Amino acid sequence: MKYGVLGTGMVGLAISNRLAELGHEVMIGTREPSKSGDKLKSKNESVQVGTFAEAAAFGEFLFSATVGGVSVDVLKAVGASALNGKTLVDASNPLDFSKGMPPTLFVTNTDSLGEQIQRAFPNLKVVKALNTVTAAIMVYPKLVAGGDHDLFICGDDADAKASVIRVLNEFGWVNILDLGDITNSRALEGLMPLWVRLYGKLGMAMFNFKLVR
Amino acid sequence: MKYGVLGTGMVGLAISNRLAELGHEVMIGTREPSKSGDKLKSKNESVQVGTFAEAAAFGEFLFSATVGGVSVDVLKAVGASALNGKTLVDASNPLDFSKGMPPTLFVTNTDSLGEQIQRAFPNLKVVKALNTVTAAIMVYPKLVAGGDHDLFICGDDADAKASVIRVLNEFGWVNILDLGDITNSRALEGLMPLWVRLYGKLGMAMFNFKLVR
């Protein structure tokens, strides 16, 4: 399976490097590859670099790891033809830093970024996942509590979710709870206000939640 | 310490009964006590019953356990003079069922119900707490995972939060994390979208989150 990862921030790099480490073919996409040298210093050498469009075309399975505010625009620039029929993990959050810290959400409650992406690309199989933890935990969940904590995912397509769960298992995730259709993105993105405050309170991002019952 | 509990739903009854069981003097407040017979069938016999105003006047320490949609109106009907200087635990959530299930929130993201109450009554010491778990867990946290899970609280007044933590300890809470000022209510109430979906997915309300790091 070839993977395309859109975005060269901490999240895009962490996912790309981890996929490469696991032996997969990966292309990371960025707006202007020629200007991304500094950002890509920590890139695994086997990860190829391309434009957003090249990475989307390369990958049979995609990760959206851009800043939430540009996720839909980046995918629109890529175009539906490179996306149709593929599975895309949306790991981004609709964070709005324009009102100061801590950030608010630019879509919430009655809609979500995950749903916006799904509506914009009806033939793309969007799975919301990984947005609730920091980049290192996304790809190395066992770094915290030996991996005994939970990841919540959602999406409309059962086969796409099954394929996402397989990749997450490769990353080390054991406790993965599928909440249902893509509207559950509201709940996953709705965790951000608590996450950012815990980050401020604890002074670090290496935490997650374990569902106890 | 005398306690006043506003609201005779599951939450108000659970808190009242638990306080009485712990040996405290408690009055539960309701709109029309003469019409509350059925609701109060499961009431501990030592819990007194009064109007909202009577319960607020009785209590030196108050719990707001009404449906979120009426919390501010009930307190306005009680009037600031019975509230000034007291500590009030706001255990309610701004759930809006008018758009169908699962409920949305009638205030979120840039404001919260906890803040609305605090703004309406500047001399009341509002502490947001307990809104993130079901009634039974609020007062018997050890029923789940032996109590090894987390309760998040917030509020502007340090002494009020210390007194709330003492009561929560009596209930059995061990892991209590004070997130900071009352604006953190946005984060606590923001957990509701995930909570209601987990409730639907798991088919039961006896769950909570443990913060792992």
Notable characteristics:
homodimer; 213 residues; alpha/beta; Rossmann fold; two-stranded antiparallel ribbon; 8 helices; globular
Report on this model:
Two copies of one chain form a homodimer. Chain A is an alpha/beta fold and 213 residues long. The first copy, chain A, has eight helices and eleven strands. The first copy, chain A, has a single domain (2-202), classed as NAD(P)-binding Rossmann-like Domain (Rossmann fold, 3-Layer(aba) Sandwich), CATH 3.40.50. In chain A, the strands form two sheets. An eight-stranded mixed sheet of chain A has the order 3-2-1-4-5-8-9-10, with helices on both faces. In chain A, strands 6-7 form a two-stranded antiparallel ribbon. In chain A, helix 2 packs across helix 3 (71-78) and helix 3 packs parallel to helix 4. The radius of gyration of chain A is 16 Å and the shape is globular. The interface between A and B is large, with 38 and 38 residues. Strand 11 of chain A pairs antiparallel with strand 11 (208-212) of chain B, so a sheet runs across the interface.
